[in-house]
Write a structure and sequence with these properties.
Blueprint (H helix, E strand, L loop, with lengths): L3 E5 L13 E6 H10 L4 E7 L2 E8 L2 E7 L2 E2 L1 H8 L3 E7 L13 H20 L17 E6 L3 H11 L5 E7 L2 H11 L3 E5 L7 H11 L4 E5 L6 H10 L3 E4 L7 H15 L31 E6 L5 H16 L3 E7 L6 H12 L3 E3 L4 E2 L5 E5 L4 E6 L2 E6 L8 H13 L3 E5 L9 H8 L3 E5 L8 H8 L5 E3 L4 H11 L2
Parallel strand pairs: 1-7, 8-9, 8-10, 10-11, 11-12, 13-14, 13-20, 14-17, 15-17, 20-21, 21-22
Antiparallel strand pairs: 1-2, 3-4, 3-7, 4-5, 5-6, 16-19, 18-19
């Protein structure tokens, strides 16, 4: 909606009254969303020529609107249909009787639809033109939000619907409600909380994957000790994980990350998911015997949405096999940085894979796995005769994965292999090009067998993939390639 308003505070300027000032060319619907997101209580008086309308927001919900001779939603839509005007905030002394019951996302979207519809009718060549006009297909991504917190459902819904490509078709407070709504609504994607009453997230995702498979993104707080549960969800078929929004971080940055994760996860071919058993380490033994000897070969394994389980399975066999070839592995995953240490511990506990998070400069030793995050600034360098991986300072405009691949290719040259799994983000691909220029190999998991192929498609289209192999052949392909290098 393009409605623009000038605004001035209705409060006197004495102390404790807040600020007085003017906002020019602001859209009324944006201001309403801001008030709702911040759970404010305010009355807005909107003026257009000699017409006056009021909108009441209480604790972030639009509860009442009045304009001329009408109240409720009709009044709300009439006010937001004005193309110009002014508004002022008025202190709410008493809460009016509720006349509006729909949530604010629906109200704002419906208001925008009515404005567009009116504009379309006015611009039509003839009001009596023959023939009917078909409604445009709604190709927005249909999302179901599942979370036991009403506030979190509201926040997630607001963030998702900020994109005109996403439609929140339903919200559920527990797994039982979610299963019922999935049958009824057939969403394109489900965001799923971990801990809920009635039916928790674990039981819910099992039901989803068995009865009506669709892409599922797990939502939780990384700091609440739920990391092991998250890995279990990924093993059960969840495409990805994303942190719940928090107040102490930039809300727009968080919104951008959430929208991108949902967009990519929605492309997942869930039918390709197969529950696979990760090899378990024998009690008291590790799957490989790392020694403090500098590695001479390096494999960088990058995964993304849909590729988390693929990475765990590959690493369980790749790390011990490389120990015999003086090789090491750097595993780059797209989970939050706080998950690197739990992920390394999980690899060791599940399959005896000697893994450690990259928290400081570390020498790259044979038979070891070093776990990093896609957003971390990492680089490979030589310390005398020993290669090392080093956390670096962030540089504006530099894509972190490109820096890592470029530096690794410079050090290891033809003794470097890059393995790209489902959803692997390869930045701007400048790093992959340097890998090629230095004789390294780029190996892709076969796209038709994985969950998220979109990022890998871009690598193939750029002509940067040396081999694309079935998942069962990845390990032998990596090892045989090193056998050809002298």
């Amino acid at each position: 909606m393009g409605t623009k308003y000038a605004s001035s505070s209705a409060h006197p300027t004495h102390v404790d009254s807040g600020f007085a000032g003017t906002l020019k060319n602001i859209q009324l619907n944006d201001l309403i969303q801001m008030c709702c997101l911040s759970t404010s209580s305010v009355c807005m008086r909107v003026t257009k020529d000699d017409r006056i309308g009021t909108i009441f927001i209480v604790d972030g919900e639009i509860v009442h609107a009045a304009c001329e001779d009408v109240e409720g939603e009709e009044a709300f839509y009439r006010i937001l249909g004005w193309q110009t005007g002014s508004f002022e905030s008025i202190e709410v002394s008493t809460t009016p009787q509720r006349t509006i019951h729909n949530n604010y996302h629906y109200l704002i979207m419906e208001a925008a639809r009515l404005v567009d519809e009116k504009a379309g009718l006015e611009s039509a060549p003839s009001a009596t033109a023959k023939g009917s006009r078909e409604e445009p297909a709604d190709d927005r991504l249909r999302v179901l939000i599942v979370d036991d917190s009403p506030m979190m459902r509201k926040i997630l819904s607001s963030m998702l619907t900020a994109s005109n490509r996403i439609k929140v078709v339903g919200m559920a407070s527990n797994g039982e409600e979610a299963i019922s709504l999935i049958d009824e609504l057939s969403p394109d994607l489900v965001t799923l909380d971990v801990n809920m009453p009635v039916m928790d997230g674990t039981s819910t995702i099992k039901h989803i994957m068995i009865e009506k498979p669709c892409p599922v993104v797990i939502t939780s707080n990384p700091g609440d000790g739920s990391s092991k549960a998250i890995f279990n969800f990924l093993e059960l078929g969840a495409v990805d994980f994303m942190s719940k929004p928090t107040k102490n971080q930039d809300i727009l940055v968080q919104q951008h990350k959430i929208l991108e994760r949902v967009r990519v996860a929605a492309t997942a071919t869930v039918g390709n998911f197969r529950i696979a058993r990760i090899p378990t380490a024998k009690t008291g033994r590790t799957a490989s015997k790392p020694i403090d000897r500098a590695c001479h070969r390096l494999v960088i394994v990058i995964s993304g949405p849909g590729g988390h389980l693929e990475q765990m399975i590959l690493l369980s066999g790749l790390v011990p096999a490389l120990a015999e070839k003086d090789g090491a592995v750097v595993a780059i995953q797209s989970l939050p940085s706080s998950f690197s240490e739990p992920f390394a511990r999980y690899l060791f506990e599940r399959c005896g894979c000697p893994a450690s998070p990259i928290g400081h400069e570390a020498s790259l030793f044979s038979g070891r796995c070093y776990v990093g995050n896609h957003g971390w600034p990492l680089a490979v360098k030589m310390n005398g005769d020993e290669p090392a991986i080093v956390p670096k300072a962030r540089e504006e405009g530099l894509v972190q994965v490109d820096r890592l691949l470029t530096s690794a290719a410079t050090v290891f040259k033809q003794h470097l292999a890059v393995v790209l799994l489902s959803g692997a983000n390869t930045g701007e691909q400048s790093g992959l090009r340097v890998v090629h220029e230095n004789g390294g190999r780029i190996i892709l998991r076969k796209r038709s067998s994985g969950m998220v192929a979109e990022p890998l498609d871009q690598v193939v289209e750029a002509g940067l993939a040396d081999e694309e192999v079935n998942p069962a052949d990845l390990l032998i392909t990596v090892l045989n390639g090193f056998g050809r290098n002298h």
